[in-house]
TrEMBL record:
InterPro entries: CB, DNA_brk_join_enz, Integrase-like_cat_sf, Integrase_catalytic, Integrase_recombinase_N, Integrase_SAM-like_N, Tyrosine_recombinase_XerCD. Belongs to the 'phage' integrase family. This is Tyrosine-type recombinase/integrase. It comes from Streptomyces endocoffeicus. Pfam families: Phage_int_SAM_4, Phage_integrase. Signal peptide: none annotated.
Length: 320
């Protein structure tokens, strides 16, 4: 099932809002924007429309804006943004802010429906950056031990977890793999990253063995003819990324390890790479990043640890 259901996103919206959002989606598709990006952008605009329809107050006249996005003002945006912070979080409000920036930019530059964007002087919400701790090898060892065995689910789950651990891939990248994406001749995987940025990443012998064992078991299962790499336990269906997310959490709990999710292995990969003095440019290629800020962001959780290790090695303050 596709992520983006335009009818669901626009359900109940006034005709003018509905028409603009459908035209915008057509423009985004023509620009080859990923489905996830289109979904987040369109959802932000639809949520603004619903907010304006449901939250009229004496000091915030919303009648016209609730019917037509070209009537939206800075005050409307700031009220919506404040409401998002109060009811969701600052990080969610920031995501909506970015989506609305793109919507009103499209209305102004592409459609020429407005002369100025109402986002022009709206401040981005300040967010507190939460440090995501890396998952230690001992914890990963416990999670993998919870998968030990020769049953189909045990073989499948070990192969999935080893790919995250060994390659630092995103949840969706491993979750959406097809059989053709795995090459056991070169021990490599073809990831389809954000923004249609593909890359090929090598994996080690333990991961290769786990994937090979899974593929042998998969060949005997109902649904083996499907192109998707990961199969669900029953029904001959694919195992979707959300199913993998649930599986990893369950395996972590059974192993006695709290807070296990795929992204922690991504942080771990970046941490171990930097500890080994790996090149940041090479790390960007392996992780599918285009922004040079990302290596710093993903290394933030462990930066203090690496600094302490360096301090201890240098022996500063121990000369007297």
């Amino acid at each position: 099932m596709p992520l983006l259901d335009l009818d669901k996103i626009t359900a109940g919206l006034p005709k003018t809002w509905d028409g603009f959002l459908r035209d915008w989606d057509r423009s985004l598709r023509a620009g080859n924007y990923p489905e996830t990006t289109r979904y987040n952008y369109l959802l932000a605009a639809a949520q603004l429309a619903r907010y304006l329809n449901e939250n009229a107050t004496p000091d915030l006249e919303t009648d016209d804006a609730a019917e037509d996005p070209t009537e939206v003002t800075r005050a409307h945006i700031e009220a919506f943004q404040g409401w998002m912070i109060e009811t969701r979080s600052a990080s969610t409000a920031l995501n909506k802010h970015k989506g609305l920036q793109q919507f009103f930019k499209w209305l102004m530059l592409d459609e020429e429906e407005i002369d100025r964007s109402p986002m022009e002087r709206v401040r981005q919400p300040k967010t507190v950056k939460k440090l995501i701790p890396v998952i230690r090898d001992d914890d990963t060892r416990k999670v993998l031990a919870a998968c030990k065995g020769k049953a189909f689910l045990q073989l499948r789950d070990e192969a999935i977890i080893r790919l995250y651990y060994n390659t630092g891939a995103r949840l969706s990248e491993v979750g959406n793999l097809t059989l053709d994406d795995i090459d056991l001749v070169t021990d490599s995987v073809h990831y389809h990253g954000k923004g249609s940025r593909d890359r090929r990443v090598r994996f080690g012998p333990k991961t290769a063995r786990a994937v090979s064992r899974y593929l042998r078991a998969r060949a005997k299962r109902k649904g083996a003819e499907l192109p998707d790499l990961w199969l669900a336990e029953r029904g001959g269906r694919r195992l979707a990324p959300n199913g993998i997310k649930i599986m990893i959490k369950r395996r972590g709990l059974s192993a006695g390890v709290k807070g296990v999710h795929a992204h922690r292995w991504r942080h771990n990969f970046a941490h171990e790479w930097k500890r080994a003095n790996g090149d940041s440019g090479d790390l960007m290629l392996l992780m599918g990043w285009v922004s040079e800020d990302m290596p710093r962001h993903y290394g933030a959780s462990a930066a203090a640890e690496r600094a302490q290790e360096t301090h201890q090695r240098m022996g500063i303050g121990e000369n007297v």
